[in-house]
Amino acid sequence: MLWSDPENEPPEDLRDTQNMLRRLSVLLALAMVLAMLVIGVR
């Protein structure tokens, strides 16, 4: 990598989208675990 290369920082909206997707995946994983517990109890 050259010193003249631009910073490898994603734009602000892309970072926001990545954070939203990360939160969504965590919520989806928690929902799956909850569903497995509910199915297992029955």
Automatic annotation (TrEMBL):
The lineage of its organism: Bacteria, Bacillati, Actinomycetota, Actinomycetes, Kitasatosporales. It holds the Pfam family MmpB. Keywords: Membrane, Transmembrane, Transmembrane helix. This is Uncharacterized protein. InterPro entries: MmpB-like. The chain crosses the membrane at residues 20-41.
